[in-house]
Write a structure and sequence with these properties.
With 192 residues, the protein is an alpha/beta fold. Helices cover 51% and strands 23% of the residues.
């Protein structure tokens, strides 16, 4: 069989084109792995991702909200958890209005604090706590840690997912044992 030699410009173009697609392939593959381990249907998983994206887009469409609030939107099975900070009640209510208008949102859980945006140090601490909790959940007996969504804001931990009651209790207890956690809020939907 003859070996084909490709001109260098075509090889570089092909390599560049593939390189640009690599993040999409990796991201798509990672999403597929997460969805495969989740108790939600693939459609529900995609719906939740869409809710999060559309909610953030709706918030950012309002100039005052875009400039003045720090909001995180996490959706599990149509329940939208809103965490973060808004400097006034009016701005917080504006966020709620935008998110409640997103198709597919069955319920909103308003955990937005009235006050200035959290600092980078606070957000870093929250990320660190989330990582510690996720690590701890992996070691909990009879618990599929992939079923638990962990959100931390201002050292308050929110646990979400479709779980059995005993799984919820095990996950909650594990989260409470992590140093630095101020409070654990259960937002589970129970299968039993």
């Amino acid at each position: 069989m003859a070996r084909r030699h490709w001109p260098l410009p075509l090889l570089l173009l092909g390599t560049t084109a593939l390189h640009g697609c690599a993040p999409l392939v990796v991201a798509g593959g990672a999403t597929a792995v997460i969805a495969a381990q989740d108790r939600r249907t693939v459609g529900s998983f995609i719906d939740d991702e869409t809710i999060e994206w559309k909610a953030v887009t709706a918030i950012n469409a309002v100039e005052s909200l875009k400039k003045e609030v720090h909001i995180n939107v996490t959706s599990v099975n149509g329940t939208a958890l809103l965490t973060g900070e808004a400097p006034t009640i009016e701005l917080r209510d504006g966020v709620l209005t935008q998110v409640r208008g997103v198709p597919g949102v069955r319920r909103t859980v308003n955990e937005i604090r009235i006050g200035p945006p959290s600092t980078l140090a606070d957000r870093s601490n929250d990320s660190w706590l989330t990582g510690k909790i996720k690590t701890r959940l992996v070691g909990v007996e009879n618990l599929q840690s992939a079923q638990i969504k962990v959100v931390t804001e201002n050292a308050v931990v929110y646990l979400m997912g479709l779980v059995k009651k005993d799984e919820a209790e095990s996950a909650t207890e594990a989260a409470r044992q992590v140093g630095g956690v101020q409070r654990v809020v259960k937002l589970f939907e129970y299968l039993d």
